[in-house]
Amino acid sequence: MKKILLFLAVIGLTFIMLSCGNKSKDSNRLILSTWSSSQVETEAINMLVDAFRNKYPDIPIEIQTLVGEYNDALQTQLLSGGGPDIFWIDAYTINQYINLGVLEPLTDFNTEGFITNMLSPFYVDNILYAVPKDFSTLALFYNKDMTEAAGVTIRDNMTWQEFTNSAARLTRNSVTGVGFVFDLARLNYMFQSDGSTIEVNGNPNITNKNVYYILNELIKLRDNKYMITPTDGGKGWLGELFGAEMVAMAVEGPWTYSYLKESFPNLNFGIVQVPKNPNGSEFTAAYTVGYGINKNSKKKDWAKTFIEFATSEEGMTIPTEKASLLPVRNSLFSLVSNPDLKPFTDSASKAVVWTGSKNMPYLFQEFANFIPTALEGQNSLEQTLNNIQNAVENTIKNNP
After folding, report:
1. The listed CATH number (3.30.300.30, 3.40.1010.20, 3.40.190.10, 2.40.240.10) that belongs to domain 30-136+287-348
2. Which of 104, 165, 219, 245 is spaced 20 to 30 A from 115 at the CA atom?
3. What local confidence, expressed as pLDDT, does residue 192 receive?
4. Residue 200 forms beta bridges with which residues?
5. pLDDT at res. 273
6. CB-CB neighbours of 375 under 10 Å
7. Domain 139-285+356-398 maps to which CATH number in 3.40.50.720, 3.40.50.2020, 3.40.50.620, 3.40.190.10?
8. What confidence tier does 336 reach under pLDDT thresholds 50, 70, 90?
């Protein structure tokens, strides 16, 4: 019995020593957390980190890719007092993290040279909490063979009437004019086209007249059979729907370009800036991701050094050239050498970044829950918007 107890004691001591050794090892490294990305983007971030290691050999750094639901996993780590030193953070979720008190303010960071509207979502109460690393906008993809056969000309910033007329003329046989996704993150720029917002002081404002007007215009296109969603076409997403030549046009982001080139190499397509909104205004949607620092990190100086390097012209050049990620510095636009991607960079200055208060995820979810009832005619559009408004208000009330 004594031998067994002695054996267990030795095993336990060994485990403790190994655990302490691992913690010590972790404490001597800078940890950067990211989510799962495409192979090209993963290679680009690895190249960026390698370049940092070469320039700062005294700062050991490791990439930690979080699997599963990124924000849930990351927030669990941060709220426990642990977690990475640096992490990717979407502009859409910035207010959640600020509300949780886990972000270190970046009060002395030099932001000169950044695209203003890509940087501004990371400022809250005039305090910078993250630094953008890249961005995406939406553009209009079109099938050149189909538009040529129909005698339709597609150009940058078409009027809404030109766009809807094109969708009608391109709808023929088994092809629908345009593919579209009724997703709040994609529609928000249209909803704000008259200066109104879908949130006011953290409360939903989804029943405002411009939301109704925009959705009504889009639903009319679908009711007239000039527009379908990926679900309508039995496809997983819009890029697949467009690649399968089930639609002649589709509003999508730059990530779709490489997908189409790889999956549909014979597809003859072009890209232009999105059409003007129904009221004539020119906007597009933008999505941007930044680097944030864990407020509990013991290596804040190292973390700031990495962010300064990664978002400098030198550092940002790597993912721009390697993965065609759109840089948030105007001076690097010339590095986006592929002319096909020009509509995305050209529209950056007029892009509305997808972001919101800590309650925006509630609005996003309830919009997704209820909008199908309007699309399928189960409820009027007015009733649908009221249902969304009421559901979000109740959720906020129950989650103060």
Report:
1. 3.40.190.10
2. 104
3. 94
4. 203
5. 97
6. 19
7. 3.40.190.10
8. confident
